[in-house]
Amino acid sequence: MANISVSQLQQKxxxxxxxxxxxxxxxxxxxxxxENMDRxxxxxxxARAQLSSxxxxxxxxxxxxxxxxxxxxxxxxxxxxxxxxxxxxxxxxDAMVAIYRADAEAAQFHTSEVANTARTRAHWxxxxxxxxxxRETLEEIHARGFDLSEEITKVTELEAEAxxxxxxxxxxxxxxxxxxxxxxxxxxxxxxxDVEKTAPVDD
Length: 203
Known about the structure:
The protein is an all-alpha fold.
């Protein structure tokens, strides 16, 4: 009976040992599960923190993008305004250049006209002086008894024509007086010539 009891006791002890081993294994597994749960909880908190940080970054990027979009719109509007102003300035400048160019061309044309008029007038003044000198020379010869009435008349006409062409509009009245004086001088010379023709000529 005692042996049976010992045997049963031995079995119970073995069973208890097994149960303890199983309990220990369960404890180890529990610790592992607890560690895994703690790790998962930590990872979850880390993930939440990362998610929150990502959301904050996304919000910041969104706000920055909106700010950049507004800044871009402002820059585009400013550039459009400056471009319009530049085009207006260019148009005004082109108009001013056209006006200045037209004025310069008109001034150049006027200068050319004045120069041409001056050259023409100088030419006829020279011709007038030549005719006047020739007339005076012919009158001197005529006064000495040579009949140069026809030549004097022609050169007087040429002198009057050259004098008229040499004068400008402001001197028309003076030129008329000069022409009258020339005509009178020519007539006087003809009268003197007629008188001299009737006078005897010494040999």
